[in-house]
Design goal:
The protein is of the alpha+beta class and 370 residues long. 24% of the residues lie in helices and 38% in strands. It contains 5 helices and 24 strands. The N terminus is likely disordered.
């Protein structure tokens, strides 16, 4: 009787386990086999992605198309000094700075004294000049002697000129002195000051940089497909966040001959009038250039997937095949659309709302093939 009690529970448990195993097997047979995404390598070097069949009905696509561009080109630029109106004051002699008369951001006028140098080189050159003049005055006799003396004076004068002594300073020399005053070559603002009282200087050392802000450069980027619409001499308007209600006017002065291969852009330099010196170097400005109307290629923004530092789109080739393309884009005002610079062609169809899911399948397929 006791043996029968142990036997019955064992039979029940075995039957339950067998039923569970049969049930699992049956349910597994009813489920369809899941197909994984697959990379398909083409003979032309392209790699396509074959999507699982269950994703095909859910795929939404949009068309890459051509749209009209307005007659105004807008871009962002940065203000800088016009390098044609910048001057570096450089020491041409060895010596020591005795006195500094201007400082950073000071405005100076042309010819204003800005620095005093102590230089034995200057004193030696002045002594040679005075000796040559005295010798010429003492010489008498024929024209040959006179010509020789004049050549000696001219050589001494030329040496002083090469050392940076101005004609008016040469004319005023009465005795040799080691102290020499530098004057501003242009009117402008001190934008760099490397001169310190008591510091030693050598030939070629930059002491000051002067710049003017009456006219400034604004350097901006345009995309390569806009080059044909921009020409030197075209008028433009610039607006800054510092003076949002004020419009600064200028014209295109330079167009770069080099295109950046990473961004497909090139730079233009615009000369802009700057009344009141309001525009400062490194300021940002919105630039509007009046150009002829044109066209641009656009695609739905939701078709773009950003990874690391690039945009990608998936082109629908039909029959569950898509191609991954690297895309370069530009700013575009139409909501929901992105301007395509490279990577897509008009008429192609790209995955839109499922772009992120397709991108995950692409990465999954790459992981399985690695």
């Amino acid at each position: 009787m006791k043996a029968r009690r142990w036997y019955l529970p064992l039979v029940v448990m075995a039957a339950a386990l067998m039923a569970g195993c049969n049930g699992s097997s049956a349910s597994g047979e009813n489920q369809p086999a899941r197909v994984a995404p697959l990379l398909v390598h083409q003979g032309d070097g392209r790699t396509l992605l074959r999507l699982p069949p269950e994703t095909w009905p859910q795929l939404s696509v949009g068309e890459v198309r051509v749209t009209n561009l307005p007659g105004v080109l807008q871009t962002t630029g940065q203000v800088s000094f016009d390098d044609r109106h910048v001057a570096n004051i450089i020491s041409r002699v060895s010596g020591r700075i005795e006195d500094v008369r201007v400082s950073l951001w000071d405005h100076v006028t042309r010819g204003e004294a800005i620095l005093t140098l102590y230089s034995p080189d200057i004193m030696t050159a002045e002594a040679e000049y005075l000796q040559a003049r005295a010798a010429m005055a003492a010489l008498g006799g024929g024209a040959a002697n006179r010509q020789f003396a004049e050549s000696m004076v001219e050589a001494a004068r030329r040496k002083l000129d090469l050392l940076g002594v101005e004609p008016a300073q040469i004319a005023s020399i009465r005795s040799a002195s080691p102290s020499f005053v530098l004057h501003a070559p242009i009117a402008g603002t001190v934008v760099q000051n490397l001169a310190t009282r008591g510091a030693a200087v050598n030939p070629g050392d930059t002491l000051y940089s002067l710049g003017t802000l009456d006219h400034v450069w604004i350097t901006a980027d345009i995309f390569e497909d806009e080059v044909a619409r921009v020409a030197v001499g075209q008028t433009l308007e610039a607006v800054t966040t510092a003076y949002p209600a004020e419009v600064f006017r200028g014209r295109v002065e330079r167009i770069s001959p080099v295109v950046d291969p990473n961004t497909h852009t090139l730079q233009i330099r615009c000369e802009v009038d700057n009344p009141g010196d309001k525009l400062k170097p490194q300021m940002l400005a919105q630039v509007r250039i009046i150009v002829r109307p044109g066209t641009a290629v656009v695609a739905p923004r939701e078709a773009l997937v950003f990874e690391t530092d690039s945009y990608f789109a998936y082109v629908d080739l039909g029959r569950g095949l898509v191609e991954r393309r690297k895309v370069t884009i530009a700013g575009w005002g139409d909501e929901g659309q992105a301007r395509i610079v490279s990577g897509l062609r008009p008429g192609e169809r790209v995955v839109t709302t499922q772009a992120l899911q397709v991108d995950e399948l692409w990465n999954q397929a790459q992981g399985e093939n690695s």
